[in-house]
Write a structure and sequence with these properties.
The complex is a heterotrimer of chains A (about 550), B (about 100) and C (about 300). By secondary structure, chain B is α+β, with helices and mostly antiparallel strands. Chain B has two helices and five strands. In chain B, helix 1 packs parallel to helix 2. Chain B is globular and about 30 Å long. Chain C has twelve helices and seven strands. Chain C has a seven-stranded mixed sheet with strand order 1-2-3-4-5-6-7, with helices on both faces. The longest helix of chain C has 20 residues. The chains are: A alpha/beta (about 550), B alpha+beta (about 100), C alpha/beta (about 300). Chains in contact: A-B, A-C, B-C.
């Protein structure tokens, strides 16, 4: 009997924890006032704890309950979660209840986190990408307890996560199937769910929170803020890249530069005869700026990481385009969408803060530990990919300069203006990531996209095709050639850059037949949030902060 | 604020009908005023900018602009609130085109 | 879809100069005190702040629907359209000129947060001088029309100037009030007024609310064509009565309104009271539908 016991420690632990919680309720539904007591009952020192902090959705009620627990009982936690988004995520560390963290992104709390690291109050295991962290949930970072957020539960504990499903399935599967405890905060407890996203078997406790869980509208960009320069780089992207390579399957990193591309599809791209030929299949959150392109018939399918506040009715009215349940509402899934962006897309394009002379790019600054999010998954060549597409084959051919065996290549593109706000150059000799690595004692500098994976850079000065570069010197001069008036750009070898231009490695707008004077905001299919609402036939309901009427 | 003047040599004579103003002085933007001057063969540019320490960038941008346009006998005055070179070049071009058109 | 289909240019997005160009008869605008004179603000220069050659306001004469007008357009994107000494003097000078030249109207394209705080007393004096000149123009029988549709709206001293005008034309993007939302929140607390709740800000200061209360006589779509045709219509109408009796009637109406609407904290209360079928939908209605509904459900106020 004793030997048997050693092989079921996890099961025994589960029984023990549930035993301590048994007195709180007959079934799975626990009263909100009991949340703190429940956490104190099920958590044990040393636990790996996931507080569902996704990029968008937050289990905020449960996070708030956690920072009210007794630090003598709830301590020595190892936080494993996608995002340190809420102040409570850092508060619980400051209360001395957390010894270690593994995460992916900390945007809103990046400054506080940096200070904690500097003063030695927290140890970081590693900073991951989203998919990478989900992967480790199934290897060596399985949560013992998961605090998740869902729209609704029934009395059995089945959960409906709806459009904002995001990371939940990955978290819950890993936790539940290693005898972990899953606690869900829900906005409503109902008799009958629209559909079951998480089966009751996988859920131990359900708490109805007084307020609906918080969701951040991260993927909404006001077209009124798109500049003429961004319209120009969007035109260059569409004509010089999307049309050239025939990009049908893609992911856009969020930003005004890519929002401009989305808004130029029904106008500029349509005028070029590209409808149906580019941008048909997307791994993308439901960007409001994609509405005009969808309405114009450009888009066949979109799979999403999460939803976007205000887009719910529009999405539900376009079930052919989005991934929609039989109940009529969308289901997102960050793990699968990340995989889609990595393997099933021919192009990733996004913006960044800094690019160096090898093409490595980073958003790291010396005083903030922000992490990576999901960009590196999309912004990397998918070396495990085997299926061919014209774009993938062409990029592969362009990059083959030796006699190696033929293979394809994903297009990984950075789109930046040469100068950012306050005249900060986007091109630098050395990334600030090095300074951060030293200050925070990281093993390697935090690079978002490696130069080795980067295939093109687009600025208002033109497009650099790094695939065609045969040597590091050519690569460096190609980068300098589109770096404009930045110190990096002014340091170019003019003769070499002209040679690269002759070979099509550097192409200026005029080489692409683009007149910068055409790059006006008039080309945008929508120039305001109100225009987007109209384009959606009134179905898009923008959050209040985006209203100006 | 930084104030400086840059003088450009240009043998091609600018054809300005009347003074032209292009742009607005808001953050990240600038206004460009182009007028006729008495000095043929050169173009003087008075730059007033809130972005301090970028004179060499202005020099390079204006030199490139000078190379492609007829600026002889023109006076340019600029109020800049931190526009990037891309925006500066765009406004210069827009002002130049307006200065050559019949109506404004 | 044609890339050039957007010929209905947005008034909200247009610069002051572009607004004038879009509203007046083609080629008829003649600018007074043009930027070439570089009549900039001495106060901003002393503070080492960026200057504008026209100090943020464009003034001149033009024709509208073939009628002579004088017109001023504030540039909301320069210092929030704020009124400084030079800026204010240009508008005042325009109104003084109106008494002399007797145009069909003076049109003020208001886009301003009010006094330019950098210029302190000079800015305050400038606005009070505008007010005095405006009254003189009206006394001389010149209608003064205010247009509010820009990103700054009409606040502070320029809010007062706007309401002194004979007719106010607004789009729903426009806002007309006195204290700014952030100021109210800072002074009274977020419970009293949440400045980040932009929908609330527009329900309490925006064009639709002002039109419902009658402070704006017209609500038009946010495009230059709509503003132009409405202004042409106004120029053709007999001028409002500035006689003492009319002013007293206005004052009585305002007094009645103050007591009748004492409990209304929000545009929603007003629209509910007026009998709009779905008050919470009003902000999302297009302009035509709103105007039709308003005509069918005017706001009734008890008169003494």
């Amino acid at each position: 009997m004793g030997e048997h016991a050693q092989w079921n420690r996890l099961g025994e632990g589960r029984t023990r924890r549930l035993g301590r919680a048994a007195r709180l309720a007959a079934g799975k539904v626990i009263a909100a006032e009991q949340a703190v007591t429940l956490l104190e009952a099920v958590l044990e020192p040393g636990d790996r704890l996931c507080i569902e902090g996704n990029n968008q959705k937050q289990a905020d009620f449960l996070a708030h309950a956690l920072v009210q627990t007794d630090p003598a009982r709830v301590r020595d936690l190892h936080l494993v979660q996608s995002v340190l988004a809420l102040p409570e995520h850092i508060d619980v560390i400051e209360r001395g209840q957390v010894s270690r963290i593994d995460f992916s992104f900390s945007g809103p709390q990046a400054g506080r986190l940096a200070r904690l690291v500097e003063t030695g109050r927290i140890s970081i295991g590693a900073i991951h990408t989203y998919l990478e962290l989900f992967a480790r949930y199934f290897v060596d970072l399985t949560p013992n307890v998961a605090l998740i957020a869902a729209e609704a539960a029934d009395r059995h504990g089945n959960l409906y996560t709806g459009p904002n499903t995001e990371d939940t399935p990955a978290i819950v599967e890993a936790t539940a199937f290693k005898q972990g405890i899953v606690i869900a905060q829900v906005s409503r407890v109902v008799d009958s769910l629209p559909r079951v996203d998480i089966p009751a078997d996988w859920v131990d406790f359900v708490i109805q929170s007084p307020e609906p869980y918080y969701v951040e509208p991260l993927f909404t960009r006001d077209p009124a803020l798109i500049t003429e320069t961004q319209v120009l780089t969007a035109m260059i992207a569409i004509k010089g890249l999307y049309a050239e390579y025939g990009i049908t399957r893609l992911n856009h990193g969020i930003g005004f530069d890519t929002a401009a591309i989305e808004l130029l599809l029904p106008t500029y791209a349509a005028d070029l005869g590209l409808k149906g030929k580019i941008c048909t299949h997307w791994a993308l959150n439901p960007h409001p700026t994609l509405i005009p392109a969808i309405e114009a018939g450009f888009v066949q399918s979109v799979h999403s990481f999460g939803s976007e506040v205000g887009m719910e009715k529009y999405i539900a009215a376009r079930p052919d385009v989005f991934f929609t349940g039989h109940d009529g509402s969308m289901r997102s899934n960050r793990a699968f969408c990340q995989a889609a962006g990595h393997y099933a897309c021919d192009l990733f394009i996004g913006s960044t803060l800094q690019i160096d002379l090898q093409g490595n790019s980073s958003t790291a600054t010396a005083d903030r530990i922000a992490g990576f999010g999901g960009a590196p998954n999309m912004g990397a060549d998918a070396r495990g990919r085997r299926h061919a597409s014209p774009a993938w084959l062409r990029a592969g051919r362009e990059s083959r300069h030796d006699g190696s065996i033929p293979r394809g290549r994903k297009l990984v593109v950075q789109i930046v203006e040469t100068f950012r706000e306050h005249m900060e150059p986007a091109f630098v000799e050395q990334l600030d990531a090095w300074a951060l690595a030293e200050r925070a004692k990281m093993e390697v500098p935090p690079v978002m996209i490696y130069g080795e994976d980067l295939t093109h850079i687009i600025t208002e000065e033109g497009i650099a095709n790094l695939l065609l570069c045969r040597t590091p010197e050519e690569r460096e001069q190609a980068i300098r050639g589109i770096a404009g008036y930045t110190p990096v750009g002014m340091g170019r070898d003019k003769r070499m850059v002209e040679n690269l231009r002759d070979r099509g490695i550097v192409r200026r707008p005029e080489d692409l037949g683009i007149d910068p004077r055409q790059a006006t905001r008039d080309l945008l299919a929508a120039r305001s949030i109100k225009d987007l609402v109209r384009a959606s036939q009134g179905l898009y309901e923008p959050p209040k902060k985006f209203r100006n009427w | 604020m930084e104030h400086f003047q840059i003088t450009l040599s240009n043998s091609a004579r600018a054809d300005i009908r009347q003074p032209v103003l292009c742009g607005v002085v808001s953050s990240g933007n600038l206004e460009v005023l182009m007028m006729q001057s008495d000095s043929g063969g050169i173009c003087t540019v008075d730059v007033n900018t809130s972005a301090v320490g970028f004179r060499d960038v202005w020099q390079a941008v204006l030199a490139d602009f000078n190379e492609r346009h007829a600026l002889g006998g023109m006076k340019i005055a600029i109020n800049d609130a931190g526009a990037t070179p891309a925006v500066v070049s765009l406004r210069l071009r827009q002002a130049y085109e307006s200065s050559r058109s019949e109506t404004q | 879809m044609n890339a050039k289909r957007l010929n209905q240019a947005s008034y909200y997005e247009a610069s002051a100069r572009a607004r004038i160009a879009g509203l007046v008869d083609a080629g008829s605008f003649d600018e007074f005190c043009p930027p070439a004179l570089q009549q900039t603000s001495p106060h901003l220069a002393l503070l080492d702040a960026p200057l504008a050659f026209d100090d943020g306001v464009v003034v001149g004469s033009a024709r509208m629907d073939n009628r002579p007008i004088l017109i001023a357009a504030q540039e909301g994107r320069f210092n929030g359209g704020s009124v400084g000494e030079v800026h204010g003097a240009k508008i005042r000078g325009l109104l003084i000129r109106a008494v002399r030249e007797k145009p069909a109207a003076v049109i003020l394209l208001v886009d301003s947060g009010g006094v330019r705080l950098h210029e302190a007393n000079a800015g305050l004096i400038a606005i009070s001088e505008i007010m005095r000149a405006l009254l003189d123009a009206q006394a001389a029988g010149i209608p003064v029309i205010a247009v509010v549709g820009g990103s700054c709206g009409a606040f502070g001293g320029m809010g007062i100037v706007t309401r002194m005008c004979d007719v106010v034309v607004m789009s729903e993007e426009g806002r007309l009030s006195l204290s700014g939302p952030e100021v109210i929140e800072t002074v009274k607390g977020v419970g009293e007024f949440d400045a980040k709740d932009k929908a609330l800000v527009w329900r309490t200061t925006g064009g639709k609310l002002r039109r419902t209360l009658g402070e704006a006589a017209y609500l038009v779509d946010d495009n230059l064509d709509a503003f132009r045709s409405t202004l042409a219509e106004i120029l053709g109408i007999a001028r409002p009565d500035n006689a003492l009796a009319a002013l007293k009637a206005d004052q009585a109406a305002l007094t009645a309104r103050r007591s009748t609407l004492a409990d209304s904290a929000d545009g929603l209360d007003i629209w509910r009271r007026a009998g709009f079928p779905a008050p919470e939908q009003v902000p999302m209605l297009d302009t035509d539908t709103f105007n039709i509904l308003l005509a069918a459900h005017p706001l009734e106020l008890a008169h003494e």
